[in-house]
Amino acid sequence: MLILSGLMAFASISTDLYLPAMPTMGIALGAAHGSMEWTISGYLIGFSLGQLLWGPLGDRYGRRLPIAAGLVLFIIGSAGCALSPDVKTLIAWRILQAAGACASVVLARAMVRDLYSGSQAAKTMSSLMTVMAIAPLIGPSVGGMILQTGSWRTIFWILVIVGFATLLSLWLLPETLPPERRNPVAVDKAFSTYTQLLRDRRLLAYIGCGGFFYGGMYAYVSGTPSAYISYYHVSPQAYGLLFALGIIGIMATNQFNSRLVVHFGSDRLMRWGSISAAISGILLLIAAHWKIGGLAGLVLLLFLYVATTGFIVANAIAGALNVSPMHAGALSALIGATQYGTGIAGSALVGALANGTPVPMACIIALCGLGCAASALLA
């Protein structure tokens, strides 16, 4: 469970650790206004598309070998980021870094489905997400501390070390997909499975629910450094603490979800969470546009949106994986590709619409919350 949590945490640690350094990185690399947000979008491009490859590979060759290959790519990409001389080079290495990191995430989800099903899978997923939330909880704070003693490049060298440590930990991880349960179809033909799976309307609703929500989440991730540090003049260290509030909310709701899912069912909890996300997103847009509550109002409403993660993500993933258990790897890849694909749109729109205020971020979060709620109701 601890190793699976660590594998799933690669999605967040690769970005959250350097969030406080983004303004400093922009100055050091001579970045144009709004271009640093593209380092997040570039990461999401690699993370989203890479999963479509690792999913079929995991169904064909088992889980451990593709994870190891992905970690090697992650290590190379992290080292490239540390050595980047400009923003364009950094974005390119971020794409490679993400293409490797996503193997850990997509196949860790598939391993959960190898071992559990139904409400037990949702409960286990919530428990894993509670543990993995430690990474984004401490990530920005650790990144801020690193900046006090080193440069932003040090952050990426630390990610290289994390990659090596995780690679070594695979010796302790058992294979959850034995040869007799593997998909014998060649990997190139396995991509046709995606077309078949996407014909299921219930699957589309589950994927849409998580996808829209992640679009808002990555608008939050890419927009808060500018909103907090540049607009409200919060220090990088204080930014880490404010960011941690949202992670505490995620951990709490994941714990609630793991206890309530047996009694209320994952679909019902997913709907409740999605409607709450839509309401908090609309209130956030109103508060940001009319400057209601200042920094405190912004932090509170962002906290309410982010905290609904515990009721949305695990339940949407579990519901989607139950559609076709024999294609757990491919389903996990579709889920991840959609979630991080909308994350690309969310973070990119924050950069494209950046005007120095939190309003573009709030607008995107509100729209994504409405899409998430609509998808959950359709499911």
Secondary structure: elements and pairs:
Layout: H1 2-8, H2 10-16, H3 22-28, H4 37-61, H5 64-82, H6 87-115, H7 118-132, H8 134-149, H9 152-169, H10 187-190, H11 192-197, H12 201-231, H13 236-264, H14 266-290, H15 294-307, H16 309-321, H17 328-352, H18 359-378
Helix pairs in contact: 1-6, 1-7, 2-8, 4-5, 4-6, 4-17, 5-6, 5-9, 6-17, 7-13, 7-16, 8-13, 12-16, 12-17, 12-18, 13-14, 13-15, 13-16, 14-15, 14-16, 14-18
Provide an overview of this structure.
The model has no long low-confidence stretch (mean pLDDT 87). This protein has one domain (2-171, 197-378): MFS general substrate transporter like domains (Growth Hormone, Chain: A, Up-down Bundle), CATH 1.20.1250.20. The chain has helices at residues 2-8, 10-16, 22-28, 37-61, 64-82, 87-115, 118-132, 134-149, 152-169, 187-190, 192-197, 201-231, 236-264, 266-290, 294-307, 309-321, 328-352, 359-378. The chain is mostly helical and 379 residues long. It is built from 18 helices and no strands. Helix content is 82%, strand content 0%.
Q: What's the quick description here?
A:
This protein has 379 residues and is mainly α.
Number of β-strand runs: 0
Number of discrete helical segments: 18
Rg, Cα atoms, Å: 19 Å
Distance separating the two termini = 29 Å
Biggest beta sheet summary: none
**What name does CATH use for the topology?**
Growth Hormone, Chain: A
Helices and strands, in N-to-C order? HHHHHHHHHHHHHHHHHH
Helix content: over 70%
Give the C-level CATH assignment: Mainly Alpha
Q: What are the low-pLDDT stretches, counting only 5+ consecutive residues below 50?
A: none
Structural class: mainly alpha
Describe the oligomeric state of these chains in a short phrase. Answer: single chain
| Anisotropy-based shape | globular
Assign the CATH superfamily.
Answer: MFS general substrate transporter like domains
Q: Mean pLDDT across all residues, rounded? A: 87
CATH architecture: Up-down Bundle
Number of domains: 1
Strand portion, in percent? Answer: under 5%
